[in-house]
Amino acid sequence: MRELNPLLHSQLRLAIISILMNVEKADFVYLREKTESTAGNLSVQLDKLSEAGYINIEKGFVGKKTRTVCNITDKGRAAFYEYVDALKDYLKL
Amino acid sequence: MEDRKLTEKESLELISQMIINTRRRIEIGDSNILLLWGLSTVVIGLAVYILVMTTKNPGFHGLWGLLGLVGLYNARIEKKRENNGSQSYTDRISKGIWNVIGVTAITSVACSFICQVLTGIAAVYGCMVFFALIIIGLGVAMQGIVIKERSMVIGGTFSVCCGMLLACLMIAYGSLYVAYTMPVLIVCYIVMMVIPGTILRSKAKKQK
Questions:
Q1: How far apart are CA B125 and CA B182, in angstroms?
Q2: DSSP state of B86
Q3: Of A76-85, B13-22, B77-86, where does mean pLDDT reach its minimum?
Q4: DSSP code of B192?
Q5: Residue range A9-31, pLDDT digits in tens
Q6: Cα–Cα distance between B112 and B12 in angstroms, integer?
Q7: In this complex, is the C-beta atom of A2 within 8 Å of any C-beta atom belonging to chain B?
Q8: Phi and psi angles of residue A70, each rounded to the nearest 5 degrees, phi first
Q9: ipTM greater than cut 0.90
C-alpha cells in the first residue's frame, strides 16, 4: 500500500488544500474562517505548503490593509489526487 | 483545527466537509446585479418611450447615458466583491463573460457614434436596440449556463431572438419606430433580468 503523503496527512493542511481545490483563490481571512484555526497556526501551515510548492501565496494590499491570497499549484493538485487515491487503497473503496 | 494526524476515514470526511462548506452558494448579491441592470433599463426605457412619443423629440434618447452611472456603481460593487474572501472557477468565468460583454457593448456605442459622425444619420443609433438585446441577451444566457439558472438561459435566449428579429425588420424597412422597438426592449429586459433576478433572490433567501 502507498504511503500517505505526510504533508497532507494533517488536519489543518488537508483542510487548506481541500478548500483550495474547490475555490480558485482564497484569502487568509476566508481560510481562517473555514478551517476555524488560529492565525498563527494557519500561517505556519500555509508556509509549509508553500515551501513544498503545493500552493502559491501572494501578499498585497487592499487600501491600507494587507491581504494574503492563496491558490493551489499543479503540483499541489497532483499531490491531492495522489493522496485521495492512496486513501481509497487504505479504505479499500 | 490543528496540525494533528488523522485516520484515513477522518481524512476523507474532512475533505468532503471542506468541499461542502466552500461550495458556491447563490448570494443575494448575484440577484441584485441582475435586478439593478434590469430595473434601470426598464425604467429608463419607459421614460424614453413616454417622453419621445409625447414630445416627438428624439433628444430624450440621451437619457440612456444614465446607464453609464449604473455601470460605474456596478463596477464599485464588483470591486468590493472581489475582495470578499474567495474566488471560485465560476466567479472567474462569470467575470470573463461580463468583461467581454462590457467591451462589446461599449464598442457598439462607439461604432454607432462613429457612423453617426461620418454619415450624419442619427437613426444609426437605432442599432443600439438590437445590439442591447443580442449582446446582453447572450451574456445573460451564458451566465445562466454557468450558474445553472434556467430562467436566465431562457430569458437571455428570448432577448437574442427578439434582437435578431428587430435587426431583420430594420434592414427590411430601413428604420424602426420607437413605438415598436421600445416596448420590445422593455419586455425583453423584464424577461431576461427582472424575472430571473427575482427568482435568484428568492432562492438565495431560501438557502440562508
A1: 13
A2: E
A3: B77-86
A4: I
A5: 999 999 999 999 989 899 999 99
A6: 57
A7: no
A8: -120, 150
A9: no
